[in-house]
Amino acid sequence: MNRKDFTQKSITIDAEVEIENHDAESKHSKKRILIITAYAIFISALISVIAAFLMKFIHLITNLCFYGVFSFSSSSPSYNHLGYWVILIPAIGGLIVGLMILFGSKDIRGHGIPEAMEQILTNNSKINPVITYLKPIASAFAIGSGGPFGAEGPIIATGGALGSTLGQITKISHNERKILLAAGSAAGMAAIFGTPIASIFLAIELLLFEFSPRSIIPVALACVVGAAGHHIFFGTRPFFEMPELGIPGSEALFLYCILGLIIGVISVGVSKFVYVTEDWFKKIPIHYMWYPAIGGLVVGLIGYYAPKTLGVGYDNITDLLLGKLPIGIILGLCVMKFLSWSIALGSGTAGGTLAPLFIIGGATGSLLGMGIMQIFPDSGVTLQMSALLGMAAMFAGSSRAVLTSIIFAVETTGQANGLLPLLGACLTAYLISFILMKNTIMTEKIARRGVDVPDSFEFDVLSNQKVGQFIKSDGFVISEDSSVKDARLWLFSHPIYKSNFFIVTTEDGKYVGILSSSTLYGEHLDENNSIKELVKRKNIYISKYDNLRTAVKMMATENIDVLPVIEFKEGAKHVVGVLGYQDIISSYKNELEENIAQAPTISIKQLHVLRKGMNLWQRK
């Protein structure tokens, strides 16, 4: 029985073998990225066609329901002349959606993004394939019959379902399936609005929870293809056209930040009220399939008195950005659209949140802008800029997808001069939302089900820590020539070396394999057997130049708690140390200790010297 003390000494490493292993792994990783990217491009091309179909289908149902004509041309239900009959049409649309929920799938309920997030976090990104066709059809009936939703939510959900379905019928990992789900969802948004950059950020902030080449390349290219589809089917002009905005001065920027702060407070109330209405519906003592019809009846009643609240309402956003609407209609959109949308969404029908939040936010921003212009007439604040900031800040506060909100506003309007005030307004809204609200409009539903949603992108400690920093240079191994009896006796007398697995080497330190403690202490084992006869686990090792993430992955895959650390010398594997799971835990402990608030690093004496230097500089 031998105990070997390993010292950190200079050893000639077979660099060619190390590089060859690393290159092989890198080549495989790049090949997987190319495969997933090809899948993502295919999905985005398909979702672009589905997006065009969905918009046409919504127009058809709108024309049939409100004007009695068979036409695929764009139209708004707000110009109908149906009188009281308009109250029933959204209720009928809700009834159709309820029947589809009952006989199709209850997964078509909701606005899409929370459901996709839940499947990513709890179900390995597996979405029911029927959502691929049921969601757009149900959404078309809900929106076409006057539902106060946008088409982007359903198409985002459909794109995600399409990506997930392809990921379930092909041989890929659940992490790669997540990427396809996110790529399909983001491509759907890009196909509707022609906003590839904002769609990429949407995927990063709400779906991927990571930023790496393996995810960003497929998603980004999918968004480019989705935007190209938008140009083919919907044209190349900005989705929301508005007059050229000027560059605001410092006073206007400050007031725009105050505007964002106020909308941040309002966004918290908007988000909470949506789930309050959902709780109200759950208390109604009837089957949930009837909820969309009840919600539709309320939508129709509000739509009778405020026709502008009916339907998608993209034209309302454009009118707000142009500053064309009178204050009465703006107030109606601010209050009545909010009530109509929140009640309809709370009923569990199929619809989106983006367009309604943009309308409510744009109307609120317009009203606040009018007030600011009255109080500070020479501040440089404009009605158009206020509407744009209100639109983006409402979504930033409600969803906390702050980068998505900023870039979306710029891409859909083409107003680069709005970037700085958008940053100020959206970030202040985000700050208020973060302080006042635990969950967002996107995460509240799944948080209630006990799902923990990541809220930050943290640095991966394991990926940056090398194995060589944590290996034990005095690690214990067993010689292959030792007998089972000697090994047992020595281990019994040295309990500090208790382990589930032991490293086995030759006398000169060449790696042989790994021996489990269950094998070594087997009841029917002949104690005169040599250790080398028991070794079964081979080719399990790690280099001191690998990172701890690779080590953790290997430990999990092989179900072991120690790894031999080897170096190549003259083509043979020599053990230079042992890495245990306790060593990996210590890396986390070190990181936590380093992140604890430290004492000031500048002394009082140094501060006095610094102050004297500043005074001397001022005199000169």
Give the CA-CA distance, first to last residue: 78 Å
- In the CATH classification, which architecture of the largest domain applies? Orthogonal Bundle
In terms of DSSP E residues, the strand content is 5-15%
As a whole number of angstroms, the C-alpha radius of gyration is 31 Å
Record field, number of beta strands: 6
What structural class is derived from the secondary structure elements?
A: mainly alpha
Q: What integer is the average pLDDT?
A: 82
How many separate domains make up the residues?
Answer: 2
**What is the CATH superfamily label of the largest domain?**
Clc chloride channel
**Major β-sheet, in short?**
3 strands, mixed
**CATH topology (level 3) name of the largest domain:** Clc chloride channel
Which class of the largest domain in CATH terms? Mainly Alpha
Identify the strand order in the major beta sheet. 1-2-3
3D architecture notes:
It is a single chain. Helix 6 runs parallel beside helix 8 (213-234). It is built from 23 helices and six strands. It folds into two domains: 24-448, Clc chloride channel, CATH 1.10.3080.10; 465-594, CBS-domain, CATH 3.10.580.10. The protein has 620 residues and is mainly α. It has helices at 15-67, 88-103, 113-122, 131-144, 152-169, 174-193, 196-208, 213-234, 250-282, 291-305, 314-322, 327-346, 354-375, 383-399, 402-413, 419-436, 444-448, 461-464, 484-493, 517-520, 548-558, 581-595, 604-619, and strands spanning 478-479, 501-505, 511-516, 542-543, 562-569, 572-580. A hairpin with a 5-residue loop joins strand 2 and strand 3. Mean pLDDT is 82; it is low at 1-22. The chain is elongated.
